[in-house]
């Protein structure tokens, strides 16, 4: 035996989420992602006079494409939350896999507008907005998953922890 406890088989750690809090927070994340998209478009069009998604003639708010872009960001946040939920209950080191997947998806979202035959300013602005949306979704969903997950007891196939088994947070005096 070369290490302490090396001969004792160790069960893999399995996690479960407090699904109600996780998904309520995920809906809030979707709202944040949509607002990041809207703020990005407002900054690009209003401050820098760069046409993002629509021609300049449509004004600072653009047209229906702005709402579609914001809705797409919200859907992306919910898809990211679904991915994190699946990874948390199914794989080892779910946060590591989620981080890699989100980094690569965000990179795709950054590179795509740069390949289009459009004005350079519009391409760069859209790529920057996509970066902000991707970072917001990845960091918030990861943080929410970290705070709403807990270890599944080894003898509990459902992952439910009885109230008396849950560790209590210390109260502040």
Q: What is the makeup of the main sheet? A: 2 strands, antiparallel
The total domain count is 1
Helical fraction equals 55-70%
Mean pLDDT: 82
Structural class: mainly alpha
Contiguous helical run count? 4
Series of H and E elements:
EHHHHE
Q: What is the 3D form? A: elongated
Q: What portion of residues belong to β-strands?
A: under 5%
Distance between the termini: 46 Å
**Radius of gyration using CA atoms only:** 21 Å
Arrangement of strands in the largest sheet: 1-2
- Number of E strands: 2
State the low-pLDDT regions, or none: none
Describe the protein in words.
- The protein has one domain (15-153).
- It starts with 14 loop residues before the first strand and ends in a 22-residue tail after the last strand.
- The chain has 173 residues and is mainly α.
- α1 (19-47) runs antiparallel to α2 (64-90).
- The protein has a two-stranded antiparallel sheet with strand order 1-2.
- The chain has helices at 19-47, 64-90, 94-114, 120-148, and strands at 15-17, 149-151.
What does the secondary structure layout of this molecule look like, with pairings?
Elements (H helix, E strand, L loop, with lengths): L14 E3 L1 H29 L16 H27 L3 H21 L5 H29 E3 L22
Antiparallel strand pairs: 1-2
Helix pairs in contact: 1-2, 1-4, 2-3, 2-4, 3-4
Summarize the structure.
The chain has 4 helices and 2 strands, in the order βααααβ. It has 173 residues and is mainly alpha-helical. It has one domain.
Keywords:
single chain; 173 residues; mainly alpha; two-stranded antiparallel ribbon; 4 helices; 2 strands; 3% strand
């Amino acid at each position: 035996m070369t290490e302490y406890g090396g001969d004792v088989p160790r069960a893999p750690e399995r996690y479960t989420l407090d699904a109600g809090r996780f998904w309520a927070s995920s809906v809030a994340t979707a709202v944040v992602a949509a607002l990041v998209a809207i703020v990005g478009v407002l900054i690009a069009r209003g401050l820098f006079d760069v046409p993002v998604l629509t021609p300049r003639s449509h004004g600072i708010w653009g047209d229906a494409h702005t709402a579609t872009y914001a809705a797409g960001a919200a859907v992306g946040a919910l898809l990211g939350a679904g991915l994190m939920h699946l990874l948390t209950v199914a794989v080892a080191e779910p946060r590591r896999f989620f981080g890699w997947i989100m980094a690569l998806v965000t990179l795709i979202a950054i590179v795509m507008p740069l390949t289009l035959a459009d004005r350079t300013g519009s391409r760069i602005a859209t790529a920057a907005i996509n970066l902000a949306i991707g970072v917001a979704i990845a960091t918030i969903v990861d943080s929410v998953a970290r705070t709403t997950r807990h270890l599944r007891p080894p003898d509990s196939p459902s992952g439910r922890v009885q109230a008396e088994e849950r560790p209590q947070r210390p109260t502040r005096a």
